[in-house]
Design goal:
The structure is a single chain. The protein is mostly beta strands and about 1000 residues long. The chain contains 14 helices and 45 strands. The strands form 8 sheets. The protein has a 22-stranded antiparallel barrel. The longest helix has 30 residues. The two termini are about 60 Å apart. The N terminus is likely disordered.
Length: about 1000
């Protein structure tokens, strides 16, 4: 019922727009208005454009060239369309597609701990990044060396050479019958310029109204030669793009602070407000709910020489220096008397970590160059050679480096811990970190005979060790990536034997990705400096750079990926049918792909020979794929065309698959076209899924998901209904979900069908409605770990196939069962995923004489996105599900945009309305009922509101050679709605909010062409 109501509401909005489209089209027929910009239209419209310019007809989703099959829905993005919308990179334009949903990977995720740092990827139909195939001129591209969530391989959209892109075709249909694996949800085909004459370029700069997110862009292209008259064309092109990092402190409240007391809701009948998560901050009632040990300050507590029994309170290690980070606060006697503050020191440091350290987006820099030559070969052939180079870099700084905790999951050894004593789940030697009584050069068995009293230990003279907590006060973590992409493509096409058209293409692509981290503590080196006293814990500022570098050495990891492909297609007309030529195309392809991504934090040399915090994930693999394919297009009547295609793929790793597709296009009258397709496809297990090293991702644990009995251990005032009575140990808490290598996975299989109608009542109006339905079986997924988590909280036996590792105990509640640190399991072929929905498009034009008005509306509605696990269906649309896969960003039922341009000749004004629907704070894959508000804390409303922004672009044409433009993005300065549950960004949904988090932005530029 809820789905029906939602569909009706949005359908009314679309219906309201339809009369406007018809109204503006009626007089346009008589005045021969220019057809609308191609956006959200079928491939047949692209064909018409190419025929008008004399360019080759390239139909994405078909191997038949030179004719339009038109059976599948295609959205076409042009550089002109992106300019009108104020979108300055092709990757940003793809991310803005209404059909892009769910677990897309945006650049902002880089600064929020993304596995595939520095990359961007698309997720058509919400089916994840590895179910959308990205092509360059119809050929495959190399994977980004790092995997999304450590398991899903994808093509980085940041490698698209923006300056030479002619258009991007987005096939919203399964296409394994044409392109092979991974084309389950659709295909993004980046089509580059075939030729260019003259010189053109642009210079552009932008910044937000608040002075953040500064960005610049430069492009220059020069070409010469006429293919028709001189038999050749050649061009070179280059570009530069830069965007500055933005930090949480640059944003307005509440996005700039750990203090969430301003976030309130009365959905329970009384007004409830969020917790103050500032480390060692006071709640709304003035209470101090425990001591937070992880700030950039050192605290110590005495323990016996064997380090088995601690006593007394913590204290600042250097009490005279006070807080090295944060603001000093002295708890009252009443506060110190509470059970929650049994170990709380007499002076605590209040640190707003989000405000002080956290990044929203990283520094981004991209530059590159391309060169292409196209030449006639004889009377009937044409050849081209295209080469590209591109470098993309990203970097940001993080929080102070941890010294106390559990290391990430290891490869050969159990995890090492400095927060708890060794047990069956931890590596030998694990112990609570403590400064010893004596230090010596030998670092072991230090005594008065071979060493000295430890100058870092204030309790050494009493023969006690000093248990040490905190984080490095003078060192923050730094993360950077540098990707270099080299690509070459060659093609030769023509006609042989009078009527056989051939098309040979080959490509080679290589990616070098360097990851560099600084500031992360190397575990063995920490144990070394603790034992020999070489690091000054009392006055960290006095440490030499050499000592700091020893404790936190720079870590460089080089990764690569490769793709080599050759493909030949032959086609000819077999007969003449009433509707046109019966055409057959056959072809073959062979490609080799490889990824070599070694772990950036392995433990091959021992459990302590690695870093804290950094994941061990990595993968290595290669395979060769041989394919044969065919397609036949039969216009059996003027009004009816049938199409059939199929492809057989064989992998050197042993898998093989045949993917068929059939479709039809019916035009009962000139103004109405009905089309439909049915296809089967597959997705091969990625290198990251089959060959990955242990990979740990962190998922926020909502207080509402913790049972009451477990919370009660932390005080009578700690309940789901009173989260402010719980320690930050529980209210700011994430579970590490570790995925183990799964070499026996089978390919995912899919069934897809589409059906649509396109109505062209007159030349200047186009209405489209397309339905899609995709079913994926044997879907590769992590096993549902909610039973394992529930069993741990209940103190019951952990289900088979899972391992739950407990975290260190809360220092303020040492007798309570600790929270969960990690849950370990393998990937499995288990689920059935269903995705269905409707795409809408209304495109039109109206010519007033002095002004031309064009309008394009595109929207996508997800009817269902679900996963069936053990016979139980989990619905995701309109909620935060699939929670783990989407980093809690969820699945939006509606996405759309409406662009309107008023062209006065030398002056054009464009406005774009962008809409993303809201969603319920629940996730069925986390055990919640569908749209049951299960993830919401009492201070949250159950539903996150929809998000609407308006962008404006003004273009001034000075003359035929120069124009300049001004963009006002997020014109009405609307910030994204607050979401305290999603963990892909802080307090807002990064996929829903996008760049809207920066508020109103301005961008200005100049374009020239000779």
């Amino acid at each position: 019922m809820m789905t029906s109501i939602s569909l009706t509401k949005k359908a009314l909005l679309l219906a309201a727009a339809t009369p406007f489209a018809f109204a503006m089209a009626t007089p346009a027929f008589a005045q021969q208005a220019t057809p609308p910009e191609q956006n959200g239209v079928r491939s047949g419209d692209v064909t018409e454009q190419n025929q008008n310019t004399g360019d080759e007809v390239v139909v994405t989703g078909s191997i038949i060239r030179g004719t339009d099959t038109g059976i599948s829905p295609v959205t076409t993005l042009t550089t002109e369309n992106l300019d009108s919308r104020g979108i300055n990179t092709v990757q940003a334009g793809i991310q803005a597609l209404s059909s892009n949903n769910g677990p897309a990977l945006t650049n902002s995720f880089t600064a929020n701990g993304a596995f595939a740092a520095g990359a961007s990827s698309v997720s058509l139909r919400g089916l994840s990044t590895n179910s959308t195939l990205v092509l360059f001129d119809g050929l495959r591209a190399a994977y980004y060396p790092l995997s999304d969530d450590g398991s899903r391989n994808f093509v980085d959209l940041n490698t698209i050479p923006d300056d030479i892109v002619e258009r991007v075709d987005v096939l919203r249909d399964g296409a394994s019958s044409s392109y092979g694996a991974d084309a389950i949800a659709g295909v993004v085909n980046v089509i580059t310029k075939r030729k260019f004459n003259g010189i053109s370029g642009r210079a552009e700069a932008g910044i937000s109204e608040d002075g953040v997110n500064a960005n610049q862009r430069l492009t220059l292209t020069a070409g010469t030669g006429d293919l028709d008259e001189k038999g050749f064309n050649a061009y070179i092109s280059g570009f530069y793009y830069r965007s500055e990092a933005v930090y949480q402190r640059d944003l307005p409240a509440p996005f700039n602070s750990d203090n969430e007391t301003g976030i309130c809701s009365n959905r329970t009948g009384t007004t409830q407000c969020g917790p103050n998560n500032i480390s060692n901050g006071l709640d709304a009632n003035g209470n101090l709910n425990g001591f937070i040990i992880g700030t950039g300050n050192f605290y110590v507590r005495p323990a016996n020489a064997a380090n088995t029994v601690a006593s007394g309170r913590y204290q600042l290690l250097n009490q005279a220096a006070g807080c090295l980070n944060g603001t000093a606060y002295s708890p009252t006697a009443a506060q110190l008397a509470t059970a929650a503050n049994a170990t709380t020191p007499s002076v605590v440091c209040q640190v707003d970590n989000t405000n002080k350290y956290d990044a929203v987006t990283p520094n981004l820099e991209r530059f590159g160059g391309s060169a292409r030559i196209t030449a006639k070969v004889g009377d009937s052939s044409e050849a081209y050679l295209l080469v590209n180079f591109q470098q993309s870099s990203s970097n940001y700084t993080g929080r102070p480096a941890a010294i106390r905790g559990n290391a990430p999951a290891g490869i050969l050894f159990p995890q090492f811990s400095t927060s708890q004593a060794a047990n069956a789940s931890l590596a030998a030697g694990s112990a609570v970190l403590a400064l010893p009584v004596y230090v010596c050069a030998a670092r072991v068995n230090c005594t008065a005979a071979n060493g000295t009293l430890n100058p870092n230990n204030p309790f050494a003279a009493q023969g006690q060790v000093a248990r040490l907590v905190g984080a490095l006060p003078d060192t923050v973590t730094e993360n950077s990536t540098r990707s270099r992409v080299y690509r070459a493509a060659f093609g030769l096409k023509g006609t042989v034997l009078n009527d056989v058209d051939y098309d040979f293409n080959a490509t080679a692509m290589h990616t070098d990705l360097r990851l560099k981290t600084k500031g992360y503590v190397y575990i063995q080196h920490l144990l070394d400096v603790v034992a020999d006293g070489s690091y000054n814990f009392v006055n960290p500022g006095l440490n030499t750079q050499a000592v700091r570098d020893y404790l936190s050495p720079e870590n460089i990891t080089d990764t690569t990926s490769d793709l080599y492909q050759a493909q030949l297609t032959l086609q000819k007309s077999l007969a003449t049918l009433p509707g046109g030529d019966l055409r057959l195309a056959v072809g073959g392809s062979i490609f080799y792909e490889a990824v070599d991504a070694p772990s950036a934090n392995d433990d091959y040399n021992g459990a302590t020979q690695r870093y804290f915090t950094l994941n061990a994930f990595g993968t290595k693999g290669n395979r060769t794929v041989s394919s044969a394919f065919a397609e036949i297009n039969a216009p059996i009547l003027d009004v009816l065309t049938l199409n059939g295609s199929g492809r057989y793929d064989h992998y050197s790793t042993g898998q093989s698959n045949f993917s068929p597709k059939v479709g039809a296009i019916f035009t009962p009258v000139k103004q109405v076209t009905v089309r439909g397709t049915y296809s089967r496809g597959f997705r091969i297990p990625s290198f990251g899924e089959a060959n990955a090293l242990p990979t740990t991702g962190y998922v926020t644990q909502s207080i509402s998901g913790i049972p009451a009995a477990f919370l009660a251990q932390y005080g009578a005032g700690c309940t789901v209904g009173t989260p402010n009575g719980c320690p930050t140990y529980l209210t700011s808490y994430s579970i590490g979900q570790t995925t183990l290598a799964s070499p026996n996975l089978k390919p995912e299989k899919s069934r897809s069908f589409t059906g649509g109608i396109k109505i062209d009542p007159i030349r200047s109006i186009s209405l489209t409605v397309d339905y899609y339905n995709i079913k994926k079986t044997g879907a590769i997924t992590t096993a549902d770990n909610s039973p394992a988590i529930a069993a741990y909280y209940a103190g019951a036996a952990i289900p088979a196939g899972f391992e739950v590792i407990a975290d260190a105990v809360d220092t303020n509640n040492p007798g309570a069962r600790p929270r969960i640190a990690f849950v370990r399991s393998q990937l499995i072929n288990a689920d059935t995923i269903n995705s269905s929905g409707i795409d809408f498009g209304i495109n039109g034009a109206y010519d007033f004489g002095p002004v031309k008005w064009t309008s394009n509306l595109n929207a996508s509605y997800i009817i269902e996105l679900s996963t069936t696990v053990d016979g139980v269906k989990q619905r995701y649309e309109g909620t935060l599900g699939n929670f783990n896969l989407t980093a809690g960003s969820g699945t939006f039922e509606w996405k759309g945009n409406w662009l309107n341009t008023f062209d006065f000749g030398n002056f054009a004004l464009t406005g774009t309305v962008n809409y993303t629907s809201g969603y319920d704070l629940s996730a069925t894959d986390q055990g919640d009922t569908y749209k049951g508000c299960g993830r919401a804390a009492v201070y949250n409303d159950c539903h996150v509101k929809s998000y609407v922004t308006v962008d404006a672009n003004v273009n001034f044409k000075v003359n035929d050679q120069f124009s300049f433009y001004v963009n006002a993005l997020n014109l009405f300065d609307r910030l994204p709605p607050v979401d305290t549950v999603t963990y892909g960004a802080y307090l807002y949904n990064a996929v829903q909010g996008g760049d809207g988090i920066f508020g109103r932005q301005y961008r200005a530029g100049v374009k020239f062409g000779f």
